[in-house]
Write a structure and sequence with these properties.
The structure holds two protein chains of two kinds. Chain A is an alpha/beta fold. Chain A has helices at 3-6, 25-37, 57-68, 73-83, 97-103, 105-115, 134-140, 156-161, 186-196, 210-219, 227-236, 240-254, and strands spanning 13-19, 42-46, 91-94, 119-121, 143-145, 147-148, 167-170, 201-204, 222-225. Helices cover 43% and strands 19% of the residues of chain B. Chain B has a six-stranded mixed beta sheet, with helices on both faces. Classes of the chains: A alpha/beta, B alpha/beta.
């Protein structure tokens, strides 16, 4: 079992997304530890990108704050190395194809292995393009996390069959960000996925409240929350970590 | 190993969110079904003829030819098309395609506003809803085009994210498409983005080189020695080049916006200063930093102010079939004034980049050689901005 799978081994998983370097790396490190203290089972670390086309306004702004603060891919690797002194939960990178490609795909994944990254999520690399990244992921023992969307229909089977780590089920159309309502028939998609694979499935995009976490985790193996956490960082800056711990704990409690 | 689908050499591909994959697959299927359908072709040809005013003229630039004292210069007059630029060629094709696919809403990005105006025009013609994304900075630089789009019934959304220019307008149009797919077609304006857009847009724009070829063979009985066009994403350039690609004797020259110069950071000359990368759905050359962060590019021309270039151009560059040369703001502004005074044709500031290089190249060629310069659009939209650049305080 990959380290990622272990996040789903003990009940429903809570996956917390944090943009690295927003507003600075000390705060990111504290925010990650706070999320873990609140009960997060897996941390998605966003490597900032200048033009994050899959993100809504909240995470776009976080990317800009991080880059304005001097965040670089190398600095993110240093952060992970430092986190790994005591953080045991699985860690996955979430970034864009060009960040990995421009670093050099094998070089990027070598460093992932060195610092202790378990998974890689690239929202602009669909099934058709993943073979460019897969060999280096395999070599480094990093799971390449695939996404399934409400529009995936006939594509679900092939994506699910080759899934590793966990499957990222996008809850609804559109970019990341909080939504008051999620209307996609996710139950049907999850049962379709279950026919193909036993890889766990976590639902993300638009989840921010404990009732949503409860409802979504009932449908799948876990939930992914990004914008709501990043918003706490936007609001409280370097003082955000305790708020993040309490928020994650409230979400986790709702999922029990 | 890379996916071979939609590739031009190593470039191109489909680097987009899963949410959009079925939309581009559906688009490709519809396009493959319709592109060789005689009824579709008839309908599109009728639109291009009666509505857009094709074929566009090939004008012999006699005074320019004499003044420069070298190659015989012809101008391909895309500025004479309805809506004032080559953008209408692609838009009519895509709007017709979208209509056949049952879409009722068109969204598009625009830089200078020419593609936005063309899309708004097609939407009005076909009775479709229309939303145009335009960098906020460009809505100021090209205020007249914003008014034109609204007059045509489109909603114009000023994009404030990032550098508030063309790349951010593309990103925002992609975000909108991800949010609303079932009734919406993203009418991409250049030979860029994920497959099948670079192919579809190239095919619709290739009418330019098909006409140049026929017009020149009729007038001169031979092919040109060189074809020049400006390159941002590269749609008028690929349209001007396409039917000459197999003719090794025809030099194909794309003129990139160098802004304040390719040795400065204020440039948009992607092939000359960029590196291989993956962005906006495609692998190609992009202006970026060492970590792959897309660079904030600059050009006086809002239409060329883009940090990437279409994948087919990247490939033509790799194999040495086309050349890509940088042209600065100053050279383009000089050419804008030069063509206006010499031939009585006010070119778009984008097209003026190609005119500028023609002024350098023509004198190095023999009088029995032929140079074709594509005038991709007319320059009315640029007059106020150029006046300001020259220190004249006029406002539209």
């Amino acid at each position: 079992m990959s380290n990622i799978r272990s996040a789903f081994a003990d009940g429903k998983a809570f996956v917390a997304f944090i943009t690295c370097g927003d507003p600075d790396f000390e705060t990111t490190a504290a925010a990650v530890r706070a999320a873990v203290a609140g009960g997060a089972d897996l941390i998605e670390l966003g490597i900032p990108f200048s033009d994050p086309t899959a993100e809504g306004p909240v995470i776009q702004a976080a990317n800009q704050r991080a880059l304005a603060g001097g965040a670089t891919t190398d600095r993110v690797f240093e952060l992970v190395r430092e986190l790994r002194r005591d953080v045991r939960v699985p860690l996955a990178f979430m970034t864009y194809a060009n960040v990995v490609f421009s670093y050099g795909i094998p070089r990027f994944l070598d460093r992932c292995r060195d610092v202790g990254i378990d998974g890689l999520i690239l929202p602009d690399v669909p099934f058709e393009e993943k073979d460019e990244f897969l060999p280096a992921c395999r070599e480094a023992g990093v799971d390449f996390i695939s996404l399934i969307a409400p529009t995936s229909h006939q594509r679900i089977a092939k994506i699910a069959r080759e899934a590793e780590g966990f499957l990222y089920l996008v809850s609804s159309l559109g970019v990341t960000g909080e939504r008051s309502e999620i209307t996609t028939d996710l139950g049907a998609i999850v049962s379709h996925i279950r026919e193909q694979t036993d890889v766990p499935c976590a639902i993300g995009f638009g989840i921010s409240t404990p009732p949503q976490a409860k409802a979504m985790s009932a449908l799948a193996d876990g939930v992914i929350v990004g914008s709501a956490i990043v918003r706490l960082l936007a609001e409280h800056g370097t003082d955000a970590p305790p708020y993040i711990r309490d928020y994650v704990a409230s979400m986790k409690a709702a999922m029990r | 190993m890379t996916n071979p689908k939609g590739r031009f050499g190593i470039h191109g591909g489909q680097y987009i969110p899963e949410t959009l994959m079925n939309a581009v697959i559906e688009l490709e299927e519809a396009y493959l079904r319709l592109k060789d359908d005689p009824a579709f072709d008839r309908e599109l040809r009728a639109l291009l003829d009666e509505y857009a005013g094709r074929p566009s003229r090939l004008t012999y630039a006699e005074k320019m030819t004499k003044d420069l004292g070298g190659a015989k210069i012809y101008l391909k007059r895309e500025d004479l098309n309805h809506t004032g630029s080559h953008k209408i060629n692609n838009v009519l094709g895509q709007a017709l395609l979208a209509k056949k696919m049952g879409k009722t809403r068109l969204i598009a990005e625009t830089g200078a506003g020419q593609h936005g105006v063309a899309t708004a025009t097609a939407a009005a013609l076909f009775g479709m809803e229309c939303v145009i994304f335009m960098g906020e900075e460009d809505t100021v630089r090209q205020a007249l085009n914003v008014y034109r789009m609204r007059l045509l019934g489109a909603e114009v959304v000023p994009v404030k994210s990032g550098t508030a220019t063309l790349k951010d307008a593309v990103s925002e149009a992609m975000r909108e498409w991800v949010s609303r797919i079932s009734d919406t077609h993203y009418c991409l304006g250049s030979v860029m983005g994920p497959h099948p857009f670079p192919t579809i847009v190239r095919d619709f724009q290739s009418v330019i080189s098909r006409e140049i070829r026929a017009q020149l063979l009729e007038r001169e009985g031979k092919l040109p020695d060189a074809v020049l066009a400006c390159v941002g994403g590269g749609s008028n350039a690929i349209g001007s080049f396409y039917h000459f690609i197999p003719d090794a004797g025809v030099r194909l020259i794309g003129c990139e916006a160098a802004g304040r110069g390719i040795d400065t950071f204020e440039t948009a000359a992607t092939v000359n200063t960029g590196r291989l990368g993956i962005f906006h759905g495609m692998k190609s050359y992009f202006c970026q930093d060492e970590y792959g962060q897309i660079a904030p590019v600059y050009s006086i021309s809002a239409g060329l102010d883009y940090p990437g270039v279409g994948p087919e151009h990247a490939h033509l560059h790799d194999i040495g079939r086309a050349e890509y040369v940088p042209v600065t703001d100053d050279e383009a502004v000089d050419a804008f004034e030069y063509l206006s005074r010499t031939e009585g044709i006010i070119p778009a500031i984008e097209s003026a980049h190609a005119v500028a290089y023609a002024r350098k190249l023509a004198p190095t060629m023999r009088p029995d050689q032929i140079l074709v310069v594509t005038i991709s659009g007319r320059g009315d939209k640029d007059c106020a901005a150029i006046a300001r650049y020259k220190g004249e305080d006029i406002y539209e």
